[in-house]
Amino acid sequence: QVQLVESGGGLVQAGGSLRLSCGASGSMFSMRAMGWYRQAPGPQRDLVALITSGGGTNYADSVKGRFTISRDNAKNTVYLQMNSLKPEDTDNYYCNAIIPDRYGRDVNYWGQGTRVTVSS
Question: What DSSP string runs through 31-91?
Answer without folding.
Answer: --EEEEEEEPSSS-EEEEEEEETTS-EEE-GGGTTTEEEEEEGGGTEEEEEE-S--GGG-E
